[in-house]
Amino acid sequence: MSEDKPHQNLAVIGHVDHGKSTMVGRLLYETENVPEHVIEQHKEEAEEKGKGGFEFAYVMDNLAEERERGVTIDIAHKEFDTDEYYFTIVDCPGHRDFVKNMITGASQADNAVLVVAADDGVQPQTQEHVFLSKTLGIDELIVAVNKMDLVDYDETDYNQVIEEVKQLLKQVAFDGDKAKFIPTSAFEGDNVAEHSDNTPWYDGETLLEALNALPEPAPPTDAPLRLPIQDVYTISGIGTVPVGRIETGTMNTGDDVVFQPSDVGGEVKTIEMHHEEVPKAEPGDNVGFNVRGIGKDDIRRGDVCGPADEPPSVAETFEAQIVVMQHPSVITAGYTPVFHAHTAQVACTIESIDAKIDPSTGEVAEEDPDFIQSGDAAKVTVRPQKPLSLEPSSEISELGSFAIRDMGQTVAAGQVLSVNE
Ligand code: GDP
Fold this sequence. Notes:
This protein is an alpha+beta fold. Helices cover 20% and strands 33% of the residues. A 6-stranded mixed β-sheet has the order 2-3-1-4-5-6, sandwiched between helices. Strands 7-8-14-11-10-15 form a 6-stranded antiparallel β-barrel. It has a 6-stranded antiparallel beta barrel with strand order 16-20-18-17-21-22. Helix 1 (20-30) packs across helix 3 and helix 4 runs parallel beside helix 5. The chain starts with 6 loop residues before the first strand and ends with a strand. Guanosine-5'-diphosphate binds next to helix 1.
């Protein structure tokens, strides 16, 4: 597998049981990127049967096993390459994980495949995932209308699901023209790698062709270092080791860095990745590192590490655009739920609701509304109750994405527009 190809982080989203995992397995299988340990595990079995290759079922068995075991990192990174790209699949085993990972940045997907079962259509989690994808900056959506085998590859059923999805996209102001629709069976393999004879009425792209045609994500190395801290460990022989994933920029040993909002800093002594010391780390790398003079209690999860001369900003207040997904009543000024932004969780007060936005046009629908409720999009001014490092998202970073959680559920999601330090 070549890592020289441009990299894409791909989220596979959709309602439970619509076939996300099966589609991931199918993609790995079709691109001959079945993980090494799966091949090892099934080598004998396959040889016994006298088959050269590995059956799709083997892949699925193994992925299912992995899921049941519950992987240590709460997201299973799977990788495959196509002619154009090297993909890391952000496979989300459970709905709750998906929401959490979208929020904390572990998902950081550039693009997404939305799986909708042809026999079930748009369901609540289809809705919620599309909502979140849009808010959190996913650019392009490929819609796999899956399980076509269960509806006898019927074109009318396919078109009906497309209509439902288009309605949904319109609601969240996704550019419907940018979405691609493909009739698939993850299980049978129709229109995944090869055009299927079962859908003679469809002459569009296969899923792999659509993946190859995705636009290339902008390289995030030009921006200053931004590294939200996920955890802080003490490791004997090394000392304090904060860990996290680099959002933008690069980190080199010898760099002068600061942690915000903890407001401490020093020189990077060592950087470790995959249990090996490295001199330099790049966007997307999960690193542990050690900074001269920093103790375990000086920094915490939710800090953002950046260069001393271009420190991450700390928001006194910030303006944001939010979409209310599900709130049992209404949201008014003064509401103080918990905001989840990158790795931080901080109670924040919505000080004012400045305007209600028409989601289909992006234009102001009402100035200074008294309240907003489920389905509304709005511009708001927010005051964190504790120091919070935040920045508007850019083309290359989703650092300004956040979710608003209350009563054990995600009530809204949004993007930082500007920060007042
Ligand atoms: P997820 O919850 O979205 O990840 O769904 P899974 O991939 O676990 O699939 C749920 C069930 O649907 C499993 O029993 C799959 O075998 C089945 N399934 C997935 N894709 C297809 C398909 O294209 N056709 C049929 N007939 N079944 C499918």
